[in-house]
Amino acid sequence: MEVADGVSVADVANRIGSGLARAAVAARLNGKLVDLSTFLGPDGPYDLEILTDKSDQALSILRHSTGHIMAAAVRRLYGNVKFGIGPAIENGFYYDFDLPQRLTDEDLAKIEAEMARIVKEAAPFVREEVPLDVAEALMRSAGQDYKLELLREIAAAGAAAGEDVAQADARPAPEADQRVSLYRTADFVDLCRGPHVPHAGKVPAFKLLTVAGSYWRGDSTRPMLQRIYGTAFFSKKALDEHLARLEEAKKRDHRRIGKDLDLFSFHDEGPGFAFMHPAGMIVLNEMLEFWRRIHREAGYVEIRTPTILSEALWHRSGHWDNYREAMYFTEIDKATYAVKPMNCPGGLLVYLNRPHSYRELPIRMAELGLVHRHEKSGVLHGLLRVRQFTQDDAHIYCLPEQLQDEVIGVITLVDRIYRTFGFTDVRVELSTRPEHSIGTDEMWEHATGALRGALGARQMTYKVNEGEGAFYAPKIDYHIRDCLGRSWQCGTIQVDLAMPERFNLTYVGEDNREHRPAMIHRAILGSIERFLGILIEHYGGNFPLWLAPVQAAVLPVSDRFNAYAGGVMQALGAANLRAELDDSSDKVGAKIRRAALGKIPYMLIVGEKEAAAGTVSVRDKAAGDLGALSVEAFVGRAREEVETKRLRPQAQGPA
Ligand SMILES: [Zn+2]
Ligand SMILES: [Zn+2]
After folding, report:
1. 3-state SS string over 555-623?
2. Which of 18, 39, 380, 505 has the highest Cβ tally under 10 A?
3. Using omega within 30 degrees of 0 as the cis cutoff, is the peptide bond preceding 195 cis?
4. Residue 652 pLDDT more than 70?
5. Mean pLDDT in the chain?
6. Which ligand is nearest to the CA of 367?
7. What are the residue numbers of the active site?
8. What is the model's pLDDT at position 159?
9. Is 230 exposed, middle or buried (0-12, 13-18, 19+ CB in 10 A)?
10. What CA–CA distance (Å, rounded) separates 51 from 583?
11. How far is the CA of 395 from the centre of ligand 2 (A)?
């Protein structure tokens, strides 16, 4: 389309059609996201894409814009506010505020009402580009210390890079005159690169969710701000569906279920380090027993390497240069040691311990390795984000020509493990060579070809992330989707091109000479603690029988039947079933409620009739009453459910 100089993106949308103009939210101009009000200058041709409410990008622009509206409302209501940052995040947005009073749920309702007024006013988002010093003067006079800090960083980055980092404008800003963009909504002025919706009236459905403390920049030595989380959608219906999912997620929050079922806890004495309780250990150990068995079957051997290893090793592995910030250090005999953040260097020492012949390869060496990685305190989140966890790691050393088959083997294993836990909606991504990388073209082609070939052989559909591999490895990543539709990155398969060189790995070939083996790193569950957290939420605490901490509750209807119940307990114990006897003096109704709250899969109720007939009345938490079964019949049924690792119906979707 040919347009006159000075025509805006909105004008172009209008010329294409009034429907498009109405649905337009923002645009992508020469690859950059811009406002609809952006003018097309004389420097065409332009590559222009109008983003409507159908695009994910538009949704995140809507949400971010709603963050500005929230900030404007907070400013109107509370006056003396210092503003932090307010980005869009997955599923919503937040804004950080520094204000004297503590915000409560009533405040959220008040802020929502004020936001609704701003939406009704259809307050425009007005973009203004000003020199950095003008923005600084404005923020200083407004007492906006956090914005001043951001401006100082922009200035420093701009000076270093010689370019304007804050700009999203299609035209480059003139050099030396560093400019930043400000956006005005109602009477709130924010430092922001944009883009935004053209006016507040474009926000059809929003909701504020929670307020939580949050350190400025996630740093516990900086001030604690108040972060309000909210979300926005293009329709009321989409918002309502999302809120229903959130409600379900809240019920399934692993931290809450972990407490209710006494699975684990966290303490100030070890921030980010989980304390696993007896019930939690039962689940973890069952997971690991299964994991070990299936790995043995797949030809893996298991090793264990030390948690603390000398600093020199981490220099050699490259972790010192690339990963030091996330590592913990300690001292032994006046020498520095590191607490391992990864298992590979230790594993490599095991491989290097003696020479290897081509006949031994592939060697599949697994390690359930306890690693420590520093995370800022602000991002710790129950079991899902911890500082200490067990990786279900393995390293495969093989002949270069075995690489593809080995990857196929890993893919098969991943598939089997995820299915067993009930994850069938799995997304796979292949990340290829990044711009900055080590190794030759030939090495990359061979490694990436093996990954592609393996995915092809297993007829997997996958997305390619061009150039997003690690600098030393192309990789396959797995994302599993839980029953609430949330996606979790868990498994990874990487072909390492660096470590075999750095550690001078060799094997003796058929020709009696030394050669370099190929090396695969892979994890399937990722962190077993995190995977447990995901499982708890996926199952809503209703574990399949094989994982349930208590598999059956034996409930005598009165203490006259405690002796018979004791016999049932013995039979269950002999069949290696985990059972609990409730011989309290409570009424059976209370016992049933308690067992239900404990999410125990089976309740076995015993009274006069059962004691006389040698039966139990079975209530399945998922399927309801099963009637009376002989003790042997129940044991057989339960054993079969355990051995086949059958999933319970609760795992299929929200209740
Ligand atoms: Zn903004
Ligand atoms: Zn590794």
Report:
1. EECCHHHHHHHHHHHHHHHHCCCCEEECCCCCCHHHHHHHHHHCCCCEEEEECHHHHHHCEEEEEECCC
2. 505
3. yes
4. no
5. 93
6. 2
7. 344, 373, 391, 393, 395, 475, 521
8. 64
9. buried
10. 65
11. 6
Collapsing DSSP to helix, strand or coil, 653 comes out as: coil
**Hey, which residues does 295 pair with through a beta bridge?**
none
Cβ atoms within 10 Å of 491's Cβ, excluding its own: 25
CA of 165 to the centre of ligand 1 (A): 15
**pLDDT of 5:** 82
pLDDT at 164: 39
Strands 264-265 and 426-431: unpaired
The two structure tokens encoding residue 298: 């797949």
Which ligand lies nearest the alpha carbon of 66? 1
User: 235: CA distance to ligand 1 center in Å?
Assistant: 21
C-alpha dihedral sign at 564, 567, 572, 578: positive
Residue 488 phi, psi (nearest 5): -125, 130
Q: Rounded to the nearest whole angstrom, what is the distance from the C-alpha of residue 100 to the centroid of ligand 2?
A: 48
Query: What is the Å distance from ligand 1's center to 479 Cα?
Result: 30
Token look-up 């307050």 returns 123
Report the pLDDT averaged over residues 194-210.
Answer: 96
Q: pLDDT of 13-64, one tens digit each?
A: 999 999 999 999 999 999 999 999 999 888 878 899 999 998 889 999 999 9
407 φ, ψ to 5°? -65, -40
- φ/ψ region of 382 (left if φ > 0, alpha if ψ in -120 to 50, else beta) reads left
Predicted local distance difference test score (pLDDT) of residue 654: 42
Ligand nearest to the CA of 70: 1
Question: In this structure, what token pair is assigned to residue 241?
Answer: 């569906």
How does pLDDT run across 417-432, given as a tens digit for each residue? 999 999 999 999 999 9
- Gap between the Cα atoms of 546 and 296, Å rounded: 19
Q: What number is the average pLDDT over the span 497-513?
A: 95
- Ligand 2 centroid from CA 447, angstroms: 16
Pick the more confident residue, 483 or 289.
289
For residue 539, the one-letter residue type is Y
Structure tokens at 514: 């030394």
What distance in Å separates the CA atoms of residue 137 and residue 511, rounded to the nearest whole number? Answer: 74
Task: Give 509-545 pLDDT, tens digit per residue.
Answer: 999 999 999 999 999 999 999 999 999 999 999 999 9
Cα(330) to centroid(ligand 2), Å: 22
Both tokens of residue 595?
A: 């067992």
Ligand nearest to the CA of 495: 2
How many angstroms does the Cα of residue 496 sit away from the middle of ligand 2? 8
* Ligand of minimum distance to the alpha carbon of 395: 2
Does this model's pTM top 0.85? My answer is no
H or E element, residue 8:
strand 7-8
The single residue listed with the structure tokens 């406002």 is 35
What type of residue is 655? A
Average pLDDT score over residue span 635-655: 81
